[in-house]
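Q: Convert this sequence to structure tokens.
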Amino acid sequence: MYTASVKFPAAVMVALGVSTLLAQAPAAPSSQEQPGRPSFAEWLESVRTEAASRGIRPEILEEALANIEEPLPVVLERDHSQAESVLSIESYLSRQITARRVRTGREMVARYATTLDKVSQVYGVPARIISGIWGMESNFGRFSGVRPTVAALATLAWDPRRSSYFRAELFNALEILNRGDIDLALLKGSWAGAMGQPQFMPSSYLQFAEDFNGDGKRDIWTTPDDVFASIANYLKGHGWTEGQTWGREVTVSKEGASHIAGTVERRTGSCQAIRNMTVPLPLSEWQALGVRTTGGGALPKADVRASMVSGTTRHFLVYPNYDALLEYNCANAYALSVALLGDRIAAEAAPASPRKTAPSPRRPPAASKKQHP
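A:
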């Protein structure tokens, strides 16, 4: 048993301007601790020169950088004082999966059901998982940040704490403008540079954003078709397998949980969430260890391996697709919130409301597959 150390819930993080796709690179000393560094104006000129060598058009550079005269104090303040909250998985889930959020999610999913269904067919990612991330990242599109992305990234790239990471993201943001995907005035997001309703960093946008409605732009800010497809493409690109689900909540006695914690090895990985999971075992072995469904019944007789994720009192067997959720934000509390929120939204039919349709996708839909096990 363990208590998960996690950042504030994603919806709260978005409100604070914190990206859940933000890399947690080691922080160097602050700018005040490194005398002799070039001024911001000198540094920005070097950025302009390098961006031009990368093929960014002069008019794009002029528009994007001309009005940036100094680092944004609010961005530096928030980066230097990121709040964290130590919550158990149970506490985190109770704060995230509220009746109000589920109700809002059902209403929004009903509104865009046709589009979500088409996206799900094309990418092989269930609509409920897409909606779970959508809800966690931007409260179903209601808030995705108001900070000017280029200015925020320039500020963070100039500050030496994580300059290499943010400098690369700054050039990625300039490339987005260079490609004409969005106008500068609309390029806004969190203070950390995360953009749009999926809260993609610019690098994730360039790799995974999709133009699902075929209008020539990959609009993750205001076009639900593109938002849903981009989330699904990200998960697919990180290993989500069609026809499989994420996992399930299970029950196990205190004695059984203690035995599992003491005898089943943990996984190794680059983030704490993965190291807090057990190695994958066949469902038959979990059955032999006393693990049961939440109703007390036997686990499915399926040829699948699962890892156990445990909070203080709640336990989950998670399948390979769960790892794709951790790629979005490597915290078990977050990944479980996405999965369980999506399951709750899909559990009951949403109230009837007009559906907004999307143009036919540019690729033929894949055959729908049942989720197993």
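Confidence is low (pLDDT under 50) at residues 1-20, 23-33, 352-370.
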